[in-house]
Amino acid sequence: MLTILKYLKSKEWTLIGISVLFIVAQVWLDLELPGYMSDITRLVQTPGSEMSEIIAAGVWMLLCALGSLATSIIAAGIAAKIAANFSSRLRSKLFDKVQSFSMEEINNFSTASLITRSTNDITQVQMLIVIGLQVLIKAPILAVWAVLKITGKSWEWSLATGVAVGVLILIVGICIVLVLPKFQKLQQLTDNLNRVARENLTGLRVIRAYNAESYQEDKFSVANHELTRTNLFANNVLSMMMPSISLIMSGLSLAIYWIGAVLIQNANGTAKMGLFSDMIVFSSYAMQVVMAFMMLIMIFILMPRAHVSAKRINEVLNTKPSLMNGSLTSSPANRVGEVEFRNVSFKYPDAEEYVVKDISFTAKQGETVAFIGSTGCGKSTIVNLIPRFYDATAGEVLVDGINVNQYEQSALRNKMGYVSQKAVLFGGTVTSNVAFGDNGSDLSSDVVDAVYTSQASDFVEKMDGSYEAHVAQGGLNLSGGQKQRLSIARAIARRPEILIFDDSFSALDYKTDRKLRSELKKESRGTTMLIVAQRIGTIKDADKIVVLEAGRIAGTGTHDELMQSCSVYQEIAYSQLSKEELA
Ligand SMILES: Nc1ncnc2c1ncn2[C@@H]1O[C@H](COP(=O)(O)OP(=O)(O)OP(=O)(O)O)[C@@H](O)[C@H]1O
């Protein structure tokens, strides 16, 4: 928990110092009250006392109470401000850190857990800071000060107070030992609930189409039930604390008055009055001592969960991204748009088997290199190594003759236009989606050209608002083919050295696919293209086709060469094209 406090700024430490001053003032004012009460009791019982003296003591008492209220409001305001700023900073830090993660780290934590850590976990820490800043500082000051006020009055009363505090600590200790492991589990179960809810919402259409609502509900109920059960256990244990504290407070009052009654009975005439007034003052201070411990208990309720949350936040913040950033921001001027794989092998983190093995090929500037092969043979994996979504396990991936891990990641990715297998659009407009990213072009002419090349102008111009038309989050108001065309436009609009299409043409009909490729050829002359495809028709004209089988290269060459030499390619070609098309 303490390590997370290093993210507090010096200005916030100053504010904490100021709030300590207010809290000390509040405690002092609170502890003045019993003194005035004792004065009033004494004055009331002393014959011949002036009414004005009683009123004066009452007014001072009221002023102390108002002062205590004002200082506590200010201290609470400062704590809320510090906690809100601190948690906002933590959220930004987590967001930035996750942005720097490779797919490996994201998969290790899981998306659902990263969401819980950025929201629920931060809220737990924020709550502890808001309450902790007031209570954690106030309680010890109050306890020590109140104990000092009552020491030396009567050892019998002190003993009763000591026993009460001892029992209180014992009960709190037992509760904490019981609930601490549950709190650890609670955050993991919240992750799990998030994961199930996310899966349900993203797969809603499929769930409905297959009438699988009850199956999903069962899954959700299991996660929900487990979370509820753990929550209930923790809350049931904690709920026993409050009645125990009330019992201890009432028991202590009773003990003080009982002891007082015996002491007063045994005292002589004049001492009786002093003892009575002492008893009232002592019982007030003793209550303050118990109150101080009660406040500490509140912290002990929040602390274990916040401690677990802080640990989970720190885990993310302290994770070193496995992709180390290189330092190169540009490549040699004479080698542009070149991609080379030298004996590259790759296995996914934690996997036993290599997904691709010993891959070597070169794509020179302006060339089109295509990858084809059966499902799951490793085509997407290969192209994902170029923008460093993962690093090669063995061998070298070079861009413009330089290993990709020597580039600054942003510089490397600015060289590329990448279109993923599943089209991804962001909430905004057509223009904001096409002119997306670091070196996305803001020029409306570039956006219009890219949309035209990607065969999207027809439908974009018909949309309400045209290029400024609204695009829903995830492109939900567009069809699959329309989304894919806009993602292709986004890659083209960057005017990159290298265009990577990861099976991006499959969502398009044959006619659009053909028109798009012929426009692309005209518009992106000089741009190196790497195309993963399922259809031979899409890649037939490529300068080089790499045929993959079970993660290895089964053949490389042009369509005609492969038709002569590669049986795997022939098989794919005969299954897709007629004899006339192949002729
Ligand atoms: N994130 C991942 N973690 C572990 N294994 C993965 C991951 N992504 C893919 N794989 C595995 O790697 C293999 C190759 O996957 P890849 O997506 O590269 O195939 P592909 O040839 O592009 O397939 P498709 O044509 O169906 O898109 C598959 O067997 C798959 O199970």
Protein described:
The protein is built from 21 helices and 12 strands. The chain is α/β, with parallel strands linked by helices. It has 3 domains: 88-317, Up-down Bundle (ABC transporter transmembrane region fold); 335-415 and 507-583, Rossmann fold (3-Layer(aba) Sandwich); 423-495, P-loop containing nucleotide triphosphate hydrolases (Rossmann fold, 3-Layer(aba) Sandwich). The strands form 3 sheets. Strands 6-9-10-3-11-12 form a 6-stranded mixed β-sheet. α17 links the parallel β9 (498-502) and β10. α1 packs antiparallel against α10, α6 (155-202) runs parallel beside α10 and α19 (559-565) packs across α20. Adenosine-5'-triphosphate binds next to α11.
Rg over alpha carbons? 36 Å
| Unreliable stretches | none
Number of discrete domains? 3
Q: What is the average per-residue confidence, as pLDDT, rounded to a whole number? A: 87
**For the record, what CATH class of the largest domain applies?**
Mainly Alpha
Small-molecule components bound:
adenosine-5'-triphosphate
Q: Predict the CATH topology of the largest domain.
A: ABC transporter transmembrane region fold
**From the 3D coordinates, which CATH architecture of the largest domain would you assign?**
Up-down Bundle
**What percentage of amino acids are in beta strands?**
5-15%
Q: What percent of the residues sit in helical stretches (DSSP H or I)?
A: 55-70%
Strand line-up of the largest beta sheet: 6-9-10-3-11-12
CATH superfamily of the largest domain: ABC transporter type 1, transmembrane domain
